[in-house]
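Holo model, guanosine-5'-triphosphate. Inputs:
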Amino acid sequence: MTANIHNAVFVKSAATSGGLIHDGLPQIVFAGRSNVGKSSVINCLLGRKNFARVGQTPGKTVHINYFLIDGAAYFVDLPGYGYAKVSKSERARWSKLMDTYFTGAGRIALGVLIVDARHKPTGDDVIMAQWFKSSRCRLVVAANKADKVKSSEKESKLAIIRETLDLEDGTGLIPFSAVKGHNREALLAETLSAVEQASRGGIAGAGEGAHDDADIQESRLVGADGGTHLGDTGPDLHHVP
Ligand SMILES: Nc1nc2c(ncn2[C@@H]2O[C@H](COP(=O)(O)OP(=O)(O)OP(=O)(O)O)[C@@H](O)[C@H]2O)c(=O)[nH]1
Ligand SMILES: [Mg+2]
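Output:
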């Protein structure tokens, strides 16, 4: 049975690791830089306006927001990373939250990494892609704001994104526009198929306990305070060699 995408309800906003949901339902996780359009992509997929909140100001989504889709799966809107104007304590809070989310929380049925179609992915994007790969979940990359890229430049921009993120041949890279709805059907199909697969009990090696600890250790991030964190949302990320 395909989940009804129009039956979506906001469930909760988690500000601390204690608030994370681990109820066994599959989770579709949307990650990306601050202001890249994560909330807009969710709204676009759900066919709703301003359901997940969208802001002109980067850093609008500062908590992990959960939306329940037809009682069958969650869409998870992660706080954006890479926004400079964030206090150190706030950054540390985000880091801890993301670290807990990726290392132990929930069944990630599909990671949707959203990057900017116009630009080469940042170092933080590369690290986030590594984290999804380490989680062994299905991954799809949406190159959002494709409406701002000239058609003559689309292919070369996509090639740069694929190369920089070192995507496997089988990993989907979808040029997307949350504003125009461009390729909404393609991303939706990927999402619904991941939900179906997860509901049948096969999350393609992902989910709790399926992380490859060695891989994760390799790509662990450190925050500004030097502690080991995943997904420090600020600009002071370093890849631990
Ligand atoms: N042109 C264009 N603008 C977009 C697109 N998607 C989002 N935007 C704009 O980009 C800005 C940020 O969008 P959000 O959806 O709030 O981005 P976000 O990634 O959720 O941001 P944070 O919650 O701060 O991490 C808004 O002004 C959107 O209208 C798109 O496909 N094309
Ligand atoms: Mg947002």
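The longest strand covers residues 107-116. The pocket of magnesium ion (ligand 2) is lined by residues 38-39, 60-61, 77 (CB under 6 Å).
Archived with the compound record.
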